[in-house]
Amino acid sequence: MTVFSALASFSVVAGLMTIVPGLDTALVLRAAISGGRRHAFATALGINTGVLVWGAGAAVGVSALLTASQTAYTVLRLAGAAYLVWFGATMVWRTMRRRSASLTTTSSGAGPTEITDTPAVAAGPGGAWARGLVTNLLNPKIGVFYVAMLPQFIPADAPHLPMGLLLALVHNVEGMAWFTLLIFGTHLARAWLTGARVHRIIDRITGTVLVGFGLRLALSAE
C-alpha cells in the first residue's frame, strides 16, 4: 500500500463517518443557531483538534491502551458520559430558567424579555473551541475507531506519527467541509431559528440528545 492509496482509501471511510449524524453534528448545529457562524466554526475547530489528538494517539499507541485496558477505557467512558449528561442537563435547565424569567417579566407588565445567555454565546469562541475539543477527547468511541482503523491505512515503511497525523488531517478536511455546509445552511434559516420560542425548543432537544448520548455511553458495556 502506497501513501497515496492509503490516503484515498481512508478518505472514503472517514467521509462516511463524517456525514453520519452524531454528537459532533449536534454540537456544531446548536452553536450555529445560538451563537452564529463564528461560534460554530470555533466548535468545529475544537472537534477537529480533538481528531488530530486522537490520530496522533492512535499512531503512537495511546489509543491502543483504551482497547487493551478495560480500566482505562471505563474511566474515560464514564468521564465522557458525566460530561455529556452535565452539559445537556445544564442546557435544558437554562431554557427552563429563561422561560420562567420571561413569564415573570410578562406577568409584571413589563412585556416579554428574551434572555440569550446560552453557554455557547456566553463562553465566546474560545469557550466554543474548548467545548468541541473536550467533547471529542472524552468520547472513547473516537479513540477506539482510530485504533481499529488507522493502523490498517499506515504503510509498513511509513513513519507512524506523521502518517497518523496526515490521515487525521484528511478526516479534518472532510469534517470541516461538512460542517461548513451545515453552518451556512443554518445561517440562511437563522432568522427563524433564533426566535425565543424556537431557540428554547432547539436547546431542549439538543440538551436531551446530549443527555441521551451520555447515558448510552455510561451504560455501554463496550
UniProtKB/TrEMBL annotation:
The keyword Cytoplasm does not apply. It comes from Microtetraspora malaysiensis. It is a multi-pass membrane protein. This is LysE family translocator. Coiled coil: none annotated. Its main location: membrane. The chain crosses the membrane at residues 6-29, 41-66, 72-93. Keywords: Cell membrane, Membrane, Transmembrane, Transmembrane helix. It is found in: Cell membrane.
